[in-house]
Amino acid sequence: MSQQQYGLVLSGGGAKGAFEMGVWKALKECDYSLGAVIGTSVGALNAAMIAQDDYDIAMEFWSNLTINQVLDLNEKMTNTYVDQWSKESFDVFRNGFLTALFSDGLDISPLRHNLTRLICEDAIRNSPIRFGLVTVDITSLKPRQLMIDDIPQGQLIDYLLASAALPIFQKQEIDGKTYLDGGFFDNVPINFMLEQNFSQIISVEFPAPGMRKWVRDNNAEIITVNNSEFLGGILNFDTRQIEQNIQLGYLDAMKVFGALNGKHYYLNTQKSNTFFRKFIDTLGQPLSNKKQLQKMLALLNLPGAASQRDVLDALENLLKKTSFKNQPLGLGMLEITAKSMGVPRLENYSIDFFIQAILKELNRLLDENLTLLDNPKIIGTFLTPSNGSYLRYNFITFYIVFLSIRGDLSPERMSTFLSKFSPDIALSMITIFYIHEIINH
């Protein structure tokens, strides 16, 4: 990759900021060179850690983060509950709790303590990656967009907390002025980065409270990394959610940076792709299992003498009826199949390992569901007309019934049976046939 330097912009969003740690991991793996990093709120905290360039400490901080490392909720609340609220009605308890919670604001001294332990101001001041943040001066009602050189020596932690000062937190005062979360001015400070003379910008954005300014320079090259799944609430410091957000940030960024492919999954098609290439080459060819070939052609509404081109065209037409219509045929078929089965999504798969994961999940589902055929009503429902609407069976039910159905059904009953298959289910079925074809031959 070219060593053109990028400006990295990090948005605010509380606990959702773990997503930005995953993006940082992807940036390092893809060898992006950063010249500056600017953040708002939690984005400012992450920006400071990135400027400091101590990845291990930052990941340790996020991986072990709990609400008690951000807010001091316990002792005062516990004592008040034991002494007063436990002896009153629920309404009195609720009102007292909310009053105590918001009257003075939430105490974020644990966060200050952790930042003091984590952040080395001198390292950030001497870093080749320039650091900046956004906050709002309530006293003068003016936004403050500050690069590290604008922040007085020894006050970096104060300004980091000022950038992240939500209204429910205790007041953040610096030199007699009170500050508010920078999201109230610009939660995604791309314009501030443009002012630092960066025309190539990577912007990490996710849904969060705050203002969003229009980007003033239409000529800037902006690479945007968004989250593809829900990140939880801004104060949801659940360990599993944080771990998932870090992984999601990494995978979503790797896809944006072109290191991974796929629409729903995250697939490396360059590494370990022997089976995948065989799968692509074999698609459309006659299956060696004659019964499966007959059923596949019936599913595609093709005659027995159909050519490889006929089969590929029919598969392409089915793919166009799915949400994977813009994917290459082979990749789309594999993703549809994995999604139909519930193969775990948030992993970096080599494409051959992805094929193995599909087979592994298929075998697991078969072990769990083989007793389906003990119920004769199941097959009966597939042979009963239902005005073309798809039944809400899971994939494995379709698969087991499809394999067990006799090939000598009358054309009318076979047509009724096949009408129950959605394009996704039909493509998944055929994908498995071809996976077995390349595995067994």
Automatic annotation (TrEMBL):
<feature type="short sequence motif" description="DGA/G">
    <location>
        <begin position="181"/>
        <end position="183"/>
    </location>
</feature>
<dbReference type="InterPro" id="IPR050301">
    <property type="entry name" value="NTE"/>
</dbReference>
<dbReference type="InterPro" id="IPR002641">
    <property type="entry name" value="PNPLA_dom"/>
</dbReference>
<feature type="active site" description="Nucleophile">
    <location>
        <position position="41"/>
    </location>
</feature>
<feature type="active site" description="Proton acceptor">
    <location>
        <position position="181"/>
    </location>
</feature>
<feature type="domain" description="PNPLA">
    <location>
        <begin position="8"/>
        <end position="194"/>
    </location>
</feature>
<dbReference type="Pfam" id="PF01734">
    <property type="entry name" value="Patatin"/>
</dbReference>
<keyword id="KW-0442">Lipid degradation</keyword>
<keyword id="KW-0378">Hydrolase</keyword>
<feature type="short sequence motif" description="GXGXXG">
    <location>
        <begin position="12"/>
        <end position="17"/>
    </location>
</feature>
<keyword id="KW-0443">Lipid metabolism</keyword>
<dbReference type="InterPro" id="IPR016035">
    <property type="entry name" value="Acyl_Trfase/lysoPLipase"/>
</dbReference>
<protein>
    <submittedName>
        <fullName>Patatin-like phospholipase family protein</fullName>
    </submittedName>
</protein>
<feature type="short sequence motif" description="GXSXG">
    <location>
        <begin position="39"/>
        <end position="43"/>
    </location>
</feature>
